[in-house]
Amino acid sequence: MKIQFAIFLIVCNGAMLRGLEDTNKEQVLERIRLAVKTNTSKHHHKAYDTLAYYVDTFGPRMWGSKSMALAVDALYQELSKVGFDKVYKENLGEINAWQRGEESLILKSPRKQDAKLNLIGLGLGKKGDVNGEVIVVNSFDDLTAQKDKVTGKIVCFNVPWKSYGYNVQYRIFAAEKAQQYGAIGVLLRSVASSSLDSPHTGTTSLNNNIPIAAISLEDAEMFQRMQDRGQKIVVELKLDSSFFKTTSDNVIAEIKGTTYPDQIVLMGGHWDSWDTGSQTGANDDGGGAITCLEALRLLKDLGIKPKRTIRFIAWSGEEMQLPKNGAEVYAELHKNENHILAFESDLGNTKPYGFGYDAKSVRSTQIVAQLAQNYLHPIRADLIVPGEGESTDAGYVNAIQGTPLMRNLIDDNETNDFYFRYHHSAGDSMSMMDADALDDNVVAIASMMYLIADNDETIQK
To answer: Which of 98, 110, 140, 439 is deepest in the core (most CB within 10 A)?
Structure first.
């Protein structure tokens, strides 16, 4: 009877301890929510205000550019004043960066007078000055079918939007394939779900030997109509660009874990952007980087100290994906550290509803799903989708260490049409950002990072 009673007490005490732990976590999460969603709190709309400051003050942040260097230094100086346990810049050494020069596209025929059209050269593309007839194709198969007509012409790829995964192959390989049939240049219908006469840029293959530029959806469709009615299309395309040697830095800040400081929960976004408009880089990926920063700042200001270290990083060089980019350098320099999670926000900042998660360990996925189910339903961010955690920069850590990957899942359709309407274009500006949605991301990210960093059981790789 005494043994049975002792077992009963142990079970009861265990249940009470779990209950107290649950209550404590719920209280912490409620503090996080209230600190951001209360209108009078200093954290309310803080992400929007911080992001707007950097976007308005420094403009686009092309990798290796002066504006990027200034924005990196300013971010480092700001983080140094917060009181994090550690803040530092991580230099990438000498890098080979790309910059655009003068660019123009003139429609000479069938217009009765020359007309200047909107364009944007593709990153890493070759410079050139070509004048010639345009032939419009709708796919790589269509290019092959018309290969005998391509020599000496400028090929316009008018490929309707299906998804980024499908359409981006044309941005990367269109010039490489067209040059095989004697093309002298390429015009690419922007890889975008829609546009308001706004070209979208991005990188292209380094194997291109002919100039390639993105044009708006509207102008690609205009060229298609001209060709369909039998009109001869002639344009003059001028692109200037160059590579140059410089350097850049990642920016890192962390809250040291109280029990397992050597176990690291990594979160961040990339700090570089394209240069298409005066504010390009607000959403991609200034918003992702800043929501993660504000999540860490929030935990610091609230005095929340989890068992494991939470580290913020603003990666440098994601857009170009050239050697010695920030993610590559970080993964190599920190390969002997124990990263138990690598989180990245880089697909927009609309309202979050959960998290994508990639891990080899079934138990790891079970832990994360249970944490979300137990604690994140009040903020409606409790859905965990296995196999949807991958992202570019965090992927470098995963490639070396097998670290589980996570990203925020946000409101958009299946092909992320809202995000890709503005992606890499002048439309990526503060005007598309929503202060409340940014706050929702800060709350969701801070809550999930805290839960994982403070969980009794370490998630397995």
So the answer is: 439
388 in active site = no
| Per-residue model confidence (pLDDT) at position 210 | 98
Tell me the pLDDT band of 19, cut-offs 50, 70 and 90. low
* Catalytic residue of the set 294, 318, 319, 328: 318
User: In this predicted structure, what is the pLDDT of residue 23?
Assistant: 82
Q: Report the predicted TM-score, pTM, of the whole model to 2 decimal places.
A: 0.93
Among positive and negative, which fits the CA dihedral 381, 385, 386, 390? negative
Please count the other Cβ atoms lying within 10 Å of the Cβ belonging to residue 231: 13
Q: Within its chain, how far is the Cα of 332 from the centroid?
A: 21
In whole numbers, what is the pLDDT of the chain averaged over residues?
A: 95
